[in-house]
Design goal:
alpha+beta; Naphthalene 1,2-dioxygenase Alpha Subunit, Chain A, domain 1; Rieske Iron-sulfur Protein; 2 domains; eight-stranded antiparallel sheet
Length: 397
């Protein structure tokens, strides 16, 4: 068990105004969404050449395609002619990607292949008008994208923590159901705050409280990756779903070492998402802004192919357990958002059990200095105030 760090002074989180300000959200989107690694899907969601999935952010749409040589490439989902959106959802392209507006066609590797009435475009150099590619990385079988910005790769950010996941063979996994997407009535940071601490579990998640031991291990590094490890409680749960999972997992999951059959691992990769590793499967979750007071939750579950009947049962039980947890998290996060809107309210001090929340808030303050203010700047002045505070910080360094 990780020792709880000592503090001499109280620590406070972000001010309430930062959870409901459209101008600040625009800065967060530029710097903390487009500028950091985002998880898209699993590489096996793009199993064959021509397979594609789209990935939508607030105002940016991306498409990921497996090329004929097997490479997964990411592009802006925008025609280079007049900006039409190219694809929706997921599917498979037989030969080329064609714009639905004027018929400009692109090879699977993004090169512009054909232009109808090409002679009417004097001096057109097709080599200059391929799809705009975005930075893509595959890590532990998952496809990540970084639209802007620079810094460590996903693998560098995870470091040795990846070794805790590799025994589960994540690269071999396939989808264990459709991608689950919800819209929550709260700021994206409200939802991430909730995910970054276990302090609320005894009250907020009675199922987890019955099913799992607490305080086994908390961990983290300096690059925003951390999490916790726990295992099944010694006492069987009074809930039949949880009890059946506790009883069946040690018997059914013989491909795992005995200790791993009862171990649950929760990882986060700030600022927006994480990966959960269960004995029977794993999932990614991701929380993205949609607008002031609104966010999107994406949840994708994966498991090894050709599961036995017992493993299928475990996955069913897992889904029941974790969908209930998701429902509880939504309810809690939306209640917090409602409270944050109360006139004159500002959050109280953070427990040392909420250090993950503090870490997220430190990231937001570093990326958007204006978020340090206890009161919101006047309407229309957030970006200017942010620039002024950033300049002052640079001058002081």
């Amino acid at each position: 068990m990780t020792d709880i760090p000592a503090r001499q002074e109280p620590v406070y989180g972000l001010a309430a105004w930062t959870y409901q300000n459209e101008e600040l959200l625009a800065l967060e989107y530029e710097r903390l969404i487009l500028g950091t690694w985002q998880i898209v899907c699993h590489q096996n969601d793009l199993a064959e050449p021509g397979d594609y999935v789209t990935f939508d952010l607030m105002r940016d749409s991306l498409v990921f395609i497996r090329d004929r040589d097997g490479t997964v490439r990411g592009f802006q989902n925008v025609c280079r002619h007049r900006g039409a959106r190219l694809l929706d959802g997921k599917g498979s392209l037989k030969t080329r990607l064609m714009c639905p507006y004027h018929g400009w066609a692109y090879h699977l590797d993004g090169r512009l292949a054909a232009v109808p009435a090409e002679a009417t475009f004097p001096g057109l150099d097709k080599s200059c008008f391929g799809l705009k590619e975005v930075e893509t990385e595959i890590f532990l079988g998952f496809v990540f994208v970084r639209v802007t910005g620079e810094g460590p790769s996903v693998a560098e950010r995870w470091g040795d923590f990846a070794d805790r996941i590799r025994p589960y063979k994540p690269e071999e996994m396939v989808a264990a159901g459709e991608l689950h997407i919800e819209e929550w009535a709260c700021d994206w940071k409200t939802a991430i705050d909730n995910n970054q601490e276990n302090y609320h579990i005894p009250v907020g998640h009675p199922g987890y409280f019955r099913l799992l031991e607490r305080g086994i291990e908390d961990f983290g590094n300096d690059l925003g990756v951390g999490g916790s490890t726990t295992r099944h409680a010694a006492k069987l749960s009074e809930n039949w779903v949880e009890r059946m999972y506790q009883q069946l997992a040690p018997k059914a999951l013989t491909h795992l070492p005995e200790a791993e059959r009862v171990t649950w691992r929760f990882f986060s990769m700030l600022p927006t998402h994480g990966i959960d590793v269960y004995p029977d499967s794993m999932d990614f979750f991701q929380i993205l802004p949609l607008g002031p007071g609104r966010c999107q939750v994406r949840l994708g579950a994966y498991g090894l192919p050709n599961p036995s009947r017992e493993v299928r049962v475990l996955r069913y039980l897992n889904q029941r357990i974790n969908r209930q947890v998701l429902h509880e998290d939504r309810w809690l996060s939306e209640r917090v958002q409602q409270g944050l809107l109360s006139h004159g309210y500002n959050p109280g001090p953070l427990s040392t059990k909420e250090d993950g929340v503090k870490e997220l808030h430190d990231i937001v303050r570093a990326a958007c200095p204006v978020a340090r203010l206890s009161e919101a700047p006047p309407p229309g002045a957030v970006r200017a105030a942010d620039a002024e505070m950033a300049a002052a910080r640079r001058a002081a360094e």
